[in-house]
C-alpha cells in the first residue's frame, strides 16, 4: 500500500493541498495519513508549575482536534467519492518533522504534500515555515508544496530543474514516475548553465538522470544564466506552461541558495504552480 502524508492545520489552504493529493495518482489505491501537530500551541500555553492546568489544556486540544478530524474526514470522503483512497489520522504534541520522521520508520511513506498560503506563498516556503523545517530535516522523502491558489491540473508538463552536481536518487525518481506515468506527463529536464562542477561529475549525473527517465517522455533544455536563476526559471515555467516544478535540495543546490539569500522578489510562478522538492539524500 502506498502512503502519502498530508500535514494539516484544518485551514482552507491545507484542504486544498489535501484535495490535490487525492487527485495526484489517478486510478491507484493508496492511503493518505493526515497529521496535525499541536506542539507550538501546547508549548506556548503550558505552565511548568500548574500540571493540572496542562492536563486540562491537553484534553481540550485533543477534543478539539478529534472533532476537526471528524469534520475533515467527512468532507474529504464526500469530495473523493468513487476514488480508492483511504484516510488515517495522527495528532501529536511533537514537532511536525519529528512526527514525519517517526512515520517514515513505521510505514512506506513515499511523499509529503503540504499547503502554503496566499500570494506570499513562496515567501513562506523560503522563510522559516513548517515546510522549511521539513525540507531541512527530512531525508529521502520528497515534499510537494501546493500553493493556496493552485487549482488541480493533471500534471502534463513537469519541469525537473537540476544542476547535475549530485545524482538524483532512485526513490525520488520512482516517486516522480508514479506521478508521470498515470498522468501521461512529459518531463522537461532543465539546467541553467553556468557550470563550475568538474566536467566528469556533470556528465555522469546528466547521464544517470537521462537513463533513469528512459521509460518516460522527456526533453532537455539548457537555459542561459542571463539574470538571476530564479527569474530564468520563472520565465521557463511560464513559457512552457509547466504544471509541476521539481527542485532538488542539497548543499549546493539552487533552492539552498534561495533559502540562504531570501531571494523571493522575482519568483512569480509560486501562486499557481506546485513545487516538488527532493530532500537531502544522505
From TrEMBL:
Annotated Pfam families: Usp (PF00582)
InterPro entries: Rossmann-like_a/b/a_fold (IPR014729), Universal_stress_UspA (IPR006015), UspA (IPR006016)
Residues in UspA domain copies: 3-147
Top-rank taxon, per record: Bacteria
PANTHER family in the cross-refs: STRESS RESPONSE PROTEIN NHAX (PTHR46268), UNIVERSAL STRESS PROTEIN UP12 (PTHR46268:SF6)
Family note: Belongs to the universal stress protein A family.
Protein name: Universal stress protein
Organism: Dokdonia ponticola
Amino acid at each position: 500500500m502506498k502512503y502519502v502524508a498530508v500535514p494539516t492545520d484544518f485551514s482552507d489552504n491545507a484542504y486544498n493541498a489535501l484535495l490535490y493529493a487525492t487527485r495526484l495518482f489517478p486510478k491507484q489505491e493508496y492511503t493518505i495519513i493526515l497529521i496535525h501537530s499541536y506542539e507550538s500551541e501546547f508549548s506556548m500555553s503550558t505552565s511548568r508549575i500548574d500540571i493540572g492546568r496542562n492536563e486540562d489544556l491537553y484534553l481540550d486540544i485533543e477534543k478539539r482536534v478529534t472533532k476537526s478530524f471528524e469534520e475533515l474526514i467527512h468532507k474529504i470522503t464526500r469530495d473523493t467519492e468513487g476514488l480508492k483512497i483511504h484516510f488515517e489520522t495522527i495528532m501529536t504534541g511533537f514537532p511536525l518533522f519529528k512526527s514525519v520522521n517517526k512515520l517514515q520508520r513505521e510505514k512506506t511513506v513515499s511523499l509529503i504534500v503540504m499547503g502554503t498560503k496566499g500570494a506570499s506563498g513562496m515567501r513562506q516556503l523560503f522563510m522559516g515555515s513548517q515546510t522549511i523545517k521539513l525540507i531541512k530535516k527530512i531525508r529521502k522523502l520528497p515534499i510537494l508544496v501546493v500553493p493556496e491558489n493552485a487549482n488541480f491540473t493533471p500534471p502534463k508538463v513537469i519541469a525537473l530543474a537540476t544542476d547535475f552536481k549530485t545524482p538524483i536518487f532512485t526513490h525520488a525518481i520512482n516517486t516522480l514516475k508514479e506521478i508521470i506515468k498515470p498522468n501521461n506527463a512529459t518531463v522537461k529536464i532543465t539546467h541553467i548553465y553556468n557550470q563550475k562542477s568538474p566536467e566528469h561529475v556533470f556528465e555522469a549525473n546528466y547521464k544517470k538522470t537521462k537513463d533513469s527517465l528512459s521509460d518516460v517522455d522527456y526533453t532537455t533544455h539548457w537555459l542561459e544564466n542571463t539574470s538571476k536563476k530564479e527569474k530564468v526559471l520563472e520565465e521557463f515555467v511560464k513559457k512552457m506552461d509547466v504544471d509541476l516544478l521539481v527542485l532538488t535540495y542539497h548543499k549546493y543546490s539552487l533552492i539552498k541558495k534561495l533559502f540562504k539569500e531570501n531571494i523571493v522578489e522575482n519568483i512569480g510562478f509560486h501562486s499557481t504552480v506546485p513545487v516538488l522538492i527532493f530532500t537531502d539524500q544522505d
